[in-house]
Design goal:
Lipocalin; mainly beta; disordered N terminus; eight-stranded antiparallel barrel; 16 strands; about 10% helix
Length: about 260
């Protein structure tokens, strides 16, 4: 074999090897770029497993800086092993494969949450959470669901109805706080309009509220006419539908109660 031919073969082989290395590196880079960052904001982790019955759901705020994730959570149930007012501080990280791990102290033990982020960063698959030690200890890690909920912000319209068939029309302008309070709860501000309703001089402002996980509670109070209506329920993950499982009217027009539905316009 001539020297020139040997040189050409070596050059071709080197080129192929270099291309293969670049392709491999490029695949890893593309894979990393395809992984969405965790969607910061309002999150909920819950489990229906028997071994999670002492802490069936927690919710709060998650935020991310590079691969580091931090959160402030609380129990969603007054009957759980820890009071809903007890803040649970979580910290952890994500890796190149989208695996999320969070840990934090809880009632003398350690809470651990694991799962794989979806491509949009808004949910976890193959998720588990576990409490080792303390008064909330699990017998084993529990399969769980992890979900991010969009902000309850926008213009909503719908109605409240009571058992007697009376319907109260309502339009609401709501804005959710961008960050939670020290317990991981978000709040709402805004107004509600009850057209042609003798109980409220519309628009009336939100007097108090709480958004946590997929649950929402808000109260409208009209101090002029002495009436308040408190609505509580759930909302869709994209924040477009508010399902009022119960509303209660108190004051000069009360008592009354019922259910309702509001949708983003």
């Amino acid at each position: 074999m001539s020297l020139n031919r040997r040189f050409s073969c070596a050059a071709v082989c080197a080129t192929l090897l270099f291309t293969a290395l670049l392709t491999g590196c490029g695949s890893k880079t593309e894979k990393a770029l395809e992984l969405a960052a965790l969607s910061t904001g309002n999150w909920q982790f819950n489990s229906n497993a028997v071994n999670a019955s002492r802490l069936p759901a927690i919710s709060g705020e998650l935020s991310q800086s590079s691969s580091t994730v931090t959160g402030i959570f609380h129990s969603n149930s007054a009957s759980s092993c820890v009071a809903p007012t007890a803040a649970i501080e979580l910290s952890g990280s994500t890796n190149a494969d989208g695996l999320l791990t969070l840990t934090g102290g809880l009632a003398g033990g350690t809470l651990t949450v694991n799962g794989t982020l979806a491509a949009d960063g808004k949910s976890l698959s193959d998720a588990t959470y576990n409490v080792s030690g303390g008064t909330c200890a699990f017998s084993a890690p529990a399969p769980a669901a992890g979900q991010n909920f969009a902000s309850v912000t926008g213009n909503y319209a719908g109605g409240f109805s009571d058992p007697n068939g009376h319907v109260i029309d309502i339009t609401a302008v709501l804005t959710q706080t961008p960050a939670s309070d020290t317990d991981g709860n978000f709040q709402l501000s805004g107004t509600g309009t009850f057209p042609s309703n003798p109980c409220f001089s519309s628009p009336v402002s939100v007097a108090s509220s709480q958004v946590t996980g997929g649950s929402v509670t808000l109260t409208y109070t009209d101090n002029t006419r002495g009436n308040s209506v408190t609505a509580s329920g759930t909302f869709s993950t994209d924040g477009t539908t508010l399902t009022v499982t119960n509303w209660t009217l108190t004051g000069t027009c009360g008592p009354d109660s019922g259910t309702g539905l509001l949708t983003k316009q």
